[in-house]
Amino acid sequence: MQNLITKHLDIWTAAHKTRSTAGRGSSNKLDLYGIKKLRELILELAVRGKLVPQDPNDEPASVLLRRIAEEEIFIKGKFKSEKLFAEITNDDKRFELPMGWEWSKLGLIGETNIGLTYKPSNVTDNGIPVLRSSNIQFGKIDLTDLVRVSGLEIKESARVHKGDLLICVRNGSKALVGKTAQIKDLPEPMSFGAFMAIFRSSLNSYIEIFLNSPVFRKNLDGTDTTTINQITQGNLIETLVSIPPLLEQHRIVAKVDELMAFCDQLEQTQSDNITAHAQLVEALLASLTNSADHKELQTNWQRIAAHFDTLFTTEHSIDQLKQTILQLAVMGKLVPQNPKDEPASELLKKIAAEKAQLIKEGKIKKEKPLPEITDEEKFFELPRGWVWTRVGALINLVSGQHLNPSEYSDSYQEGMLDYLTGPADFGDTQPNATRYTFETRAISKVGDILITCKGSGVGKLNRSDKSYAISRQLMSIQPIIIDVNYTYLLMDSLNTQIRSQIVGIAIPGISREDVTNSIAMVPPLAEQHRIVSKVNELMTFCNFLKTNLQNSQVVQYALADALIDSILGPKNVIAKQSMQENIVNITTSLKLSSHKVPSDKALLAKIIKGEGGDADAKQVWKKSSLDLPSFYKQLKIEIAEGYIKKPSAGITV
User: Which residue has the higher pLDDT, 16 or 483?
Assistant: First the structure.
């Protein structure tokens, strides 16, 4: 088994993804999928009898089970339900057991109890601890978050003993139902809550492995209960469990402990590598924003470009690159300046004149004067031709208005406007309204920039592709003369600054002044156009990188699953077909290197040569007759040895 881990180390460690709650560069926000699947594989092999070798001299499990039954009847005087002794049919058995193993039911080898029901008024600071789902963390008992109760009778059946298995049997999250940990230390008498159960037997060290294995999880997923997210007492005691000889159980437990410790080390190393990678990317990108001018930026960029393939390999690093591009754009470092451009100071004069005319014509309202910009607010030196100003000097800002339910409808009628109620109506780039109105009190026009000013999405942006009525959760930014696309980039770059002004907890929000008083960096109009063009080019490339990364991750997950299936056998035909389809995501085509003739050991290169030097990856895989993990490893070897070209992408700034 150790060889299985080390031989495919790249597969176990390469398959990881960012969780939905991922924050800035934190490795604990990553789901190390490959290592997670490795842990599951170890547990499944353990309960299938494939983790350690069998010893024909071991007392068979049938003798062990008979002894347990005799102890229950003749020593403890307990009699099991006749239902538990119903014959276990071949259809019930999930897989074939090794010689010496037996199928049994949890109810035949131990006993289980449901926990204590208590009221909020019973919770005290000095009562008896009641173990809950939160006291099981990462497969271990965690006593840092204990609830204590008093003022009620606690029966013996609701007390825990050392060696008991604590099981979550009911939870709002289905994923948490069934999580189990053994109580290995009991510093004081304890009970357990009504959403928990304990299982007590002389085989608990092995049973803990079984209950945490994918075999038990699959059994849970197929359980039919009248209550969602629950294991009933009946379900639990009827659960089929594979029982090895007692001596083999000891060997299994020792081997699982050893391999899980190895997985812990693997996980820590991977987490440390991910954290170090994130810090390196952050430092290198900071060198770009700290560049004195475009020329120095190019020099610093070359340092990054030389290692592009190894730096931008996570979604977080690509998102960091996007933010850096935005910062470079509004700092005047993304494109070179042209001394022939009309300076931004002249542009501001034209904007001021245009605003004055619009106010005179009654098309926009006059705003109160904007505060002067202090030297402390100027965080860096602007290029020649640029100016500092307030956002309010560049735009007209329309505040959304509240509509009563009688003033809008869920169905469209001729002449109605789409009515946007908040960021829930935002699409990827343009809104998708679900309500309509005849009211025109607050209108966002074609090309306007929508910004969320109330609710959980404060600061979120979108673009109006037509006229919309907007609610008080939104404001509409109407650029005057200034390039609307540059204005969008500017507002996107100011997101953190604007969100720092949020007030309110129940309904967070920002004011008009929080938007209009924000600091704006304004380049000449001609340079704005060049900046927008360059940003669009670079963002397209970043999106390409992210799409390729996501495709690559799908392949990595498939490789980890394929490796497990090659050991345990594919789960079903659909899963196998899915893995076959994912291979196309490795790359669209594979090409030979022009300088190296394929040798006999270059299996894939020879296939590509036979296809004319350029072949579809999926077809190469099929012709190789290799399983998916082996194909992947061989492909990496032949790329490293120069037989096959490594696909690469270029980018310039």
Answer: 483
Contact 118, 124 (CB under 8 A): no
CA distance 305 to 139: 43
327 closest CA partner among 283, 384, 289: 289
The rounded distance, in Å, linking the Cα atoms of 106 and 167 is 13
Q: Give the amino acid at 187.
A: P
Q: Determine the pLDDT at residue 534.
A: 92
Looking at residue 269, what is its pLDDT?
Answer: 86
Any idea of the CA torsion for 295, 300, 303, 305, to the nearest 10 degrees?
-70
Nearest to 492 by CA among 242, 347, 325, 365: 325
Residue 270 identity? Q
CB 458 within 8 Å of CB 510 = yes
Q: What's the CA gap between 511 and 77, in Å, rounded?
A: 75
Q: Measuring CA to CA, which residue among 370, 409, 366 is closest to residue 388?
A: 370
Mean of the per-residue pLDDT values of the chain: 84
The answer to whether 107 touches 81, Cβ cutoff 8 Å, is: yes
Backbone φ, ψ for residue 600 (5° rounding): -60, -30
Integer angstrom CA distances of residue 573 from 59, 445, 569, 590: 39, 53, 11, 27
User: Once rounded to an integer, what is the mean pLDDT over residues 53-73?
Assistant: 89
Query: CA-CA distance, 400 to 464, in Å (whole number)?
Result: 14
What pLDDT is recorded for position 299?
85
Banded model confidence at residue 21, pLDDT cuts 50, 70, 90: very low
Mean pLDDT on 355-368: 93
Token pair recorded at residue 120? 């909020």
- Find which of 118-122, 560-564, 608-612 is predicted with most confidence, using mean pLDDT: 118-122
Cα separation, 196 vs 147, whole angstroms: 14
Which string of DSSP letters, residue by residue, matches 108-176? HH-EEEE-B---GGGEESSSEEEE-GGGEETTEE--SS-EEE-SS---GGGB--TTPEEEE-B-SSGGG
Alpha-carbon span 301 to 264, nearest angstrom = 37
- Closest by alpha carbon to 485, among 540, 536, 420? 536
287-293 long-range contacts, Cβ below 8 Å, gap at least 24?
288/324, 288/328, 288/333, 289/324, 289/327, 289/328, 289/331, 289/333, 291/333, 293/333, 293/383
Partner residues linked to 521 by β-bridges: 388
Asked if 475 and 451 count as a contact pair (C-beta separation under 8 A), the reply is: yes
Distance CA 401, CA 67 (A): 78
Residue 651 burial class via C-beta count within 10 angstroms: exposed 0-12, middle 13-18, buried 19 and up: middle
**Which amino acid, 106?**
L
Provide the 10 A C-beta neighbour count for residue 263: 17
Per-residue confidence (pLDDT) for residue 9, from 0 to 100? 62
Contact 438, 418 (CB under 8 A): no
pLDDT for residue 647 is more than 60: no
Is 492:539 a contact under the CB 8 Å cutoff? Answer: no
Q: How many Å apart are CA 78 and CA 396, to the nearest integer?
A: 82
24: left (phi over 0), alpha (psi -120 to 50) or beta: beta
Torsion of CA 230, 233, 235, 238, to 10 degrees: 160
What H or E segment, with its residue span, contains residue 450? strand 449-452
Q: Alpha carbon of 207 to those of 145, 215, 254: distances in Å?
A: 26, 12, 14
Above 50 in pLDDT, residue 651?
Answer: no
Tell me the C-alpha to C-alpha distance, in Å, between residue 119 and each of 116, 152, 169: 10, 10, 19
The answer to whether 469 and 521 are in contact (CB under 8 A) is no
